Amino acid sequence: MRYGPAVRRRKLGAELRRQRELAGLTSLEAARAVGWHQSKVSRIETGSSGVKPADVARLLDAYGVTDAELRALLGALCGAGSPEPGEGAGARRGWWYAYRDRLPPAYLDFISLESEASRLSTLETTVVPGLLQTPDYARAVTRAALGDPAPEQVEELVRVRLARQAVLRGEQPLEVCAVLDEAVLRHEVGGPEVMAGQLRHLVETGSLGHVRLHVLPFSSGGHIGITGPFVIFSFPRIADLDVVVLDHLTSSLYLERKEDLRAYGAAFTTLRAHALSHEKSLEFIAGINDGA
């Protein structure tokens, strides 16, 4: 288990090494092609040091990689959403760059991964996933999580959460598959009125073709997800970049080993099999809201 930035460096390095090998170059030849010492290429490929977006672009140029989607993905993994000072106005920035001094690095890393992933699979046992929250629900969750935060801090965090939801819109929206324990729907976060609005929003969002909801009713009994929530990020075309994220009170842990990915992938498949279908889940959520 490693914190997010280290995970991204390791995965980026592994993919850059793969691209170098596909180009038929040794690490020494790659270094000479871009005018570096061989040790720099080695450090990048092992994930032991960070790398600027401009350096990733130079390597990909040397390897003859022209695939725009792949280049954008690898740029995101090296932190292209937060370019180094002096890289110029053309450097790629994510919307979260404006919050870089006010949000924890692990949260910024999570947002960056979320913005570039093609699919998100999540189990939630207590709260509605952030991408599916209404503003009022997000405020209530934020207040509860932080204890007694200042109003301006709450509003800023809510703005960030709502901005994250942009990944659900656009030409290639993020595919979301969420398994929700019934407790998520029963906790009256923010009170009855706020919760009613949140349940309506879940039903509305669930009508989007790229959002699938599966409810695990209390009647399903114990299940493999009882140990806690998790998120699996899947990336286009490169399965080795997939990441599992476990949230804790003070930090997030990122799992990258293939055996971890297989275990959590299998767990998610099992959870979906025990949960209600998407259609029945939307009926279930609407029924709770109607008092059924």
UniProtKB/TrEMBL annotation:
Cross-referenced InterPro entries: Cro/C1-type_HTH, DUF5753, Lambda_DNA-bd_dom_sf
Checking Pfam families in the record gives:
DUF5753 (PF19054), HTH_31 (PF13560)
- Database matches in Gene3D superfamilies: lambda repressor-like DNA-binding domains (1.10.260.40)
**According to the lineage, what is the superkingdom?**
Bacteria
Domain (HTH cro/C1-type): give its ranges: 16-70
Q: Which SUPFAM superfamilies match?
A: lambda repressor-like DNA-binding domains
Entry protein name: Helix-turn-helix domain-containing protein
